[in-house]
């Protein structure tokens, strides 16, 4: 299965000047854990995640004054729609993140979350046998 089969193509986008509270409200309203950030001053899209917001608040920063552009996830890995889900999962594990921005020919076409991968794998069926547990006597 490929990234294109699992990704969410309804992308939530927030601006770099939005506050963290604005981003959190938008993410809560859309029931997503990440938003794409298009900053004309940056070479490509960025991403703000629930984890980025949590770390800021945990550090005592004010979500009403902190700006999205100052809390973007760093060292982004972009996925291709043609990647296998295994390759995407490996990139997430190596990079220690739970979302990938999916880019095709320079255009943002979706977001893939670890939840999307797990959903596909469980709907498609496990690839290894699950141990059969005996009922207690």
Task: Give an overview of the whole structure.
By secondary structure, the protein is an alpha/beta fold. Helix content is 34%, strand content 18%. It is built from five helices and six strands; from the N terminus they run αβαββαβαββα. It has helices at 3-6, 20-30, 50-58, 85-95, 114-124, and strands spanning 13-14, 34-37, 46-49, 78-79, 99-104, 107-113. The strands form two sheets. It has a three-stranded mixed sheet with strand order 1-2-3. β2 (34-37) and β3 (46-49) form a beta hairpin. The longest helix is centred in the first third of the chain and has 11 residues, at 20-30. It is globular, with a radius of gyration of 17 Å.
Secondary structure layout:
Elements: H1 3-6, E1 13-14, H2 20-30, E2 34-37, E3 46-49, H3 50-58, E4 78-79, H4 85-95, E5 99-104, E6 107-113, H5 114-124
Parallel strand pairs: 1-2, 4-5
Antiparallel strand pairs: 2-3, 5-6
Summarize it:
The protein is built from 5 helices and 6 strands; from the N terminus they run αβαββαβαββα. It has helices spanning 3-6, 20-30, 50-58, 85-95, 114-124, and strands at residues 13-14, 34-37, 46-49, 78-79, 99-104, 107-113.
């Amino acid at each position: 299965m490929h990234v294109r089969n699992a990704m969410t193509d309804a992308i939530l986008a927030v601006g770099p000047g939005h506050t963290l509270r604005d981003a959190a409200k938008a993410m809560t309203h859309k029931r997503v854990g990440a938003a794409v950030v298009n900053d004309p001053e940056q070479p490509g899209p960025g991403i703000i995640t629930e984890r980025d917001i949590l770390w800021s608040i945990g550090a005592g920063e004010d979500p009403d004054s902190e700006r999205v552009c100052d809390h973007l996830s760093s060292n982004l890995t972009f996925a291709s729609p043609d990647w296998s889900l295994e390759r995407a999962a490996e990139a997430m594990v190596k990079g220690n993140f739970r979302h990938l921005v999916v880019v095709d020919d320079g255009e943002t076409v979706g977001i893939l979350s670890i939840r999307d991968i797990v959903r596909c794998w469980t709907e498609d069926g496990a690839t290894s046998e699950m141990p059969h547990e005996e009922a207690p006597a």
